[in-house]
Write a structure and sequence with these properties.
Length: 231
């Protein structure tokens, strides 16, 4: 799954990495976030009013019929089922989006005690920005909500968690945004060998730790091929 990530590359770095074919509306301020959690507004690439946007969208989708059942918003959609599900089929056709990310966090259950989980910091092996396939539902003002698409993990990533965000290389990411194309994001997504990871402190589990401690980790990450978590 994907329940926590970071956006610490700046907006120009994300735009340069994606190299979109059309102009992008980037209204609003940009600030680095190191511990992005569900239920918060997140800068997302999406189409609204005939234009590609990079603007805040709330992480967590719940259509009216879902809310009427008293169910909480969903933050992920499975790539294996989303296209044909009642929940996501319309968004799959008309609401494809991208979440720009720098890294994501995943939690591995302890084999000795499933209640204990070790968080991991997962990044692109080349340290370039990542683009998670997503689905976007527009509100009347264009803000809307989104979910991140997940896929099955393979190789070493599967040892951490059985699901992963569907991260796309730039060309596949641009195709994903083009609703005139039949999406094949699962075919062209990045694989385990495209990432590197290491265990980090459980302190990342607290949303309030979007602060200087994590900034120190990022500074180390940018500066060296290996880094030490500062907690």
């Amino acid at each position: 799954m994907c329940g926590r990530f970071a956006q610490f590359h700046n907006r120009d770095e994300f735009l340069a990495a994606l190299a979109p074919d059309t102009p992008v509306n980037t209204a609003g301020d940009w600030h680095a976030r190191y511990n992005v959690a569900p239920g918060t507004p997140v800068l997302v690439f999406h189409h609204y009013d005939g234009q590609l946007q990079l603007t805040p969208v709330n992480w967590g989708y719940a259509p009216a019929w879902w809310r009427e059942q008293g169910k909480p918003p969903l933050i992920n959609a499975r790539v294996e089922t989303a296209e044909h599900s009642r929940m996501f089929s319309t968004l799959w056709k008309h609401g494809r989006a991208l979440v720009p990310a720098s890294v994501w966090y995943e939690w591995k259950k302890s084999p000795d005690n499933p209640r204990l989980k070790q968080p991991y910091f997962i990044r692109g092996a080349d340290r370039q920005p990542l683009f998670f396939a997503a689905l976007y539902a527009a509100d009347s003002d264009g803000s809307g909500s989104f979910v991140i698409i997940t896929a099955a993990s393979h190789a070493g990533l599967a040892d951490i968690h059985d699901r992963r965000p569907l991260a796309l290389p730039p060309a596949a990411a641009r195709d994903w945004l083009d609703t005139s194309l039949v999406p094949q994001a699962d075919v062209y997504s990045l694989q385990a060998e495209d990432f590197s990871w290491q265990p980090v402190s459980p302190a990342v589990g607290a949303v309030r730790n979007d602060n200087t401690l994590i900034k120190r980790l990022i500074a180390s990450y940018r500066a060296a091929s290996t880094f030490t978590y500062p907690y």
